[in-house]
Amino acid sequence: MTVLDTVAVDRTARKSRLRHYLMCPPTHFSVTYAINPWMNPDIPVNHDLAEIQWDVLRHTYLSLGHTVDLIDPEPGLPDMVFAANGGLVVGGRAYSAKFRYEQRQGESQAYRNWLKAAEIHAVDPIETNEGEGDFLTLGAMILAGSGFRTNISAHIEAAAAIDRPVVSLELVDPRFYHLDTCLAVLDDGNGAAPADIAYYPAAFSPHSQRTLRDLFPNAVICSEADALAFGLNAVSDGHHVVLPTAAIGLGEQLRGRGYNPVPVNLGELLKAGGSVKCCTLELHV
């Protein structure tokens, strides 16, 4: 079977699976500090537009049949809208976040409190990590990023907390400071099709590029232009892939693989270096 044959088989097996997400309204969203290359406090944020764009994303998930829970936003935590960073939740177990920068550290307790109220057992971390920003779940493993926000030693903690093998990947481009900015899980391998991803190779060290090639020889390779449009900060249910509107080329690639791209515009939230996936913590069952 050739690579093209494999892709053809995958295309026929694309099926959506209902998901459960946690989101945080952008009530207090703003850009008042800079902790990544995308943030510039001198560029104003249109708060009304940010709320509209976020709500379109929420209703997109609901229209696809998914469940969306909400966490109450807290004053003084403008980045709390980026719910993916709040932890890693798999199978009723969670590994809580411990943020690198002081400006976001208050979010850790807020998300931990929500998990406790939801009766999800959460392991408190010793090591610095930023939740699903750097931990992406597949059926048989967790892909884990390090280099900017999450310590590689946190990968060991996460493996123990979630009881899944963890594959460590080194990030080397500060523009892609979290794993979820340069790699998207398209199919988690829990359905009829095998696990499938899309990624931007130059965001990773040579060793990690080799690891990804070995594990996912048929992965979708994203262009730099679409990666810079945050096209890989996407959320997939195995068939529908919600991604930024500007990632046109990536959308075409996904359609060719049998996925259904669902574009949304989160331009205001991108001013803080976040988009679709950043706003979405999946509560993996």
Which spans have pLDDT < 50 for at least 5 consecutive residues? Answer: 1-10
Share of helix, binned = 25-40%
CATH superfamily: L-arginine/glycine Amidinotransferase, Chain A
Strand order of the largest sheet: 2-1-15-3-4-5
Number of domains: 1
Mean pLDDT: 94
Largest sheet, strands/sense/barrel: 6 strands, mixed
Contiguous helical run count:
8
Q: Please give the radius of gyration in angstroms.
A: 17 Å
CATH architecture: 5-stranded Propeller
How would you sum up the global shape?
A: globular
Structure characterization notes:
With 285 residues, the chain is of the alpha/beta class. It has eight helices and 15 strands. The protein has helices at residues 3-12, 47-63, 106-117, 153-162, 206-215, 224-228, 248-256, 267-270, and strands at 20-23, 67-70, 87-90, 93-96, 121-123, 135-137, 142-146, 166-170, 183-187, 196-199, 220-221, 235-236, 240-244, 260-264, 281-284. The chain starts with a helix and ends with a strand.
